[in-house]
Design brief:
Blueprint (H helix, E strand, L loop, with lengths): L7 E6 L20 E2 L3 E2 L1 H10 L4 E5 L5 H7 L13 E5 L14 H6 L2 H5 L5 E6 L2 E3 L4 H9 L4 E7 L9 E5 L5 E6 L8 E10 H12 L8 H11 L4 E5 L4 E3 L3 H9 L28 E2 L4 E3 L2 E2 L4 E2 L2 E3 L2 E2 L4 E2 L4 E3 L2 E2 L4 E2 L4 E3 L1 E3 L4 E2 L4 E2 L21 E3 L4 E2 L4 E2 L4 E2 L12 E2 L4 E2 L4 H11 L4
Parallel strand pairs: 1-4, 1-6, 4-5, 8-12, 14-17, 15-18, 16-19, 17-20, 18-21, 19-22, 20-23, 21-24, 22-25, 23-26, 24-27, 25-28, 26-29, 27-30, 28-31, 30-32, 31-33
Antiparallel strand pairs: 2-3, 6-11, 7-13, 8-11, 9-10
């Protein structure tokens, strides 16, 4: 790992609910969603920091933070368990003066102004905790210092049809930002903000204090802070990033980012010795591949047991694929069991799911009929299953189907779930409470 940069404080924003990820962020913060088998999404931002020599890190959490706290802990997997510096998890709490839940990305930092006030350095790096990329932040910080910038924004070019989901950055030949529009319906260009900001500390504090007094503000960096800095003539520059970067904020983009690991070469090299992606790794035995099993173009994690076929898929630790089962073009998370002779096609399946034998999940050619309850989230043919669902034997599931968490075989209305339908527990909170009580001693 690199030598620490003691003048930069890094703040990772990890409190978002991530509603576009549907069921996978209902029970956990989006940065804690499993990715690439054994990793979590936030591992990429944390690993980028330590590989860049940045070891003074605050992770601001809010929505269902327990999974993030459990995963990061005191930061040992990233060499961040230090007497001085290291990583600290910070959540909002009632009782602060004029404070409550974070109202936006900039408000999350504002509510932790005491951390900035106590910081002796003059540079603050602000990151999102929900992107997939490998980036050395030092060149961006160096450019920021050389330009004597008040703020520097990481930018990249993406397909124009996707640009409306991001902040659009217009910069001149010098790289100075002349216009910033957050998620416009008709983008002027395809140069977008990556949600990576380097601030001069004093400028950031001044802008946060000013924004907090504005009753009409959304208290968001993209909607309010950056545009106001431009209006007032602050020195704002764009730092171009040319490598792979993925926003995995939707089910489709999450699936695509996982599948892009299976290309040759992969979009992100997880095994590059010079830039390791660190994670909290569980102690599990090596994967078992049966004598009759078949694994093609797939990522199979430790602890898996494969006795059927796995084709172009990503499996987290502990997944079991029983005899005669076929998994293709799918993502399956920790400790899920695929029963004998079942077929899984274009699915994203959460952890600890039990799929009964002789099931067919992801059936039919109708990829375009969206889910009736979540048409904006499930509309590309992917069907999804939530944590700890137990599916009955012989179940047949179409496209764009949502199967909720903690279901039992008796919760299903029948053995055929048509394209676009949803199956969910009528009292999910009670079911979750019972599950927690049952596993309190584990």
């Amino acid at each position: 790992m690199s030598r620490p940069n003691s003048s930069t404080l890094t703040i990772i924003l990890a409190g978002g609910q991530g509603e576009r990820l549907s069921i996978f962020s209902e029970k956990r913060a989006k940065p804690a969603v499993p990715f690439a088998g054994k990793y979590r999404i936030i591992d990429f931002a944390l690993s980028n920091c330590v590989n860049s020599g940045l070891t003074d890190i605050l992770v601001l959490t809010q929505y269902r933070p327990s999974s993030l706290h459990d995963h990061i802990g005191i930061g040992r997997p990233w060499d961040l368990d230090r007497l001085h510096g290291g990583v600290r998890m910070v959540s909002p709490y009632l009782g602060r003066k004029d404070a409550d839940w974070y109202r936006g990305t900039s408000d999350a930092v504002y509510q932790n102004l005491s951390e900035l006030a106590n910081w002796k350095g003059d540079t603050v790096l602000i990151l999102g905790g929900d992107h997939i990329y490998k980036m050395d932040y030092r060149p961006m910080i160096n450019m920021h210092l050389e330009k004597d910038a008040d703020v520097t924004v990481g930018v990249m070019h993406i397909p124009i049809e996707e640009a409306h989901r991001f902040g659009i950055v217009t910069s001149n030949e010098e790289g100075r930002i002349v216009d910033f529009q957050e998620k416009p319906k008709q983008p002027k260009s395809n140069q977008v903000s990556m949600g990576i900001y380097v601030f001069k500390k004093d400028a950031l504090v001044d802008r946060l204090l000013e924004d907090a007094r504005d009753p009409h503000s959304q208290h968001d960096f993209g909607h309010n802070i950056i545009p106001k800095m431009l209006d007032d003539g602050d020195r704002a520059f764009a730092y171009p990033f040319l490598d792979y970067w993925r926003d995995v904020g939707t089910v489709q983009s999450y699936w695509e980012a996982n599948m892009e690991l299976l290309t040759d070469p992969p979009a992100v090299d997880l095994y590059e010795r010079k830039w390791i992606i660190y994670t909290k790794s569980e102690e599990r035995p090596s994967a078992i591949i049966g004598s009759e099993a078949k694994v093609e173009r797939s990522m199979v994690s430790h602890g898996c047991q494969i006795y059927g076929q796995v084709i172009h898929s990503v499996l987290s630790p502990g997944v079991i694929v029983e005899e005669g089962a076929v998994v293709k073009d799918s993502i399956i998370m920790f400790d899920t069991v695929v029963g004998k002779n079942s077929v899984i096609d274009h699915m994203v399946i959460d952890k600890e799911v039990i799929i009964g034998p002789d099931s067919q999940l992801g059936v039919g050619d109708d990829f375009d009929t969206p889910n009736k309850l979540e048409p904006g989230r499930l509309n590309t043919g992917l069907s999804i299953i939530g944590k700890r669902a137990h599916l009955p034997a012989g179940l047949k599931v179409g496209r764009n189907v949502k199967i909720g968490t903690d279901l039992r075989p008796t919760d299903f209305p029948g053995l055929e779930i048509a394209t676009g339908e949803t199956v969910q527990v009528t009292q999910p909170d009670l079911r979750e409470l019972v599950h927690r009580l049952e596993h309190a001693s584990e």
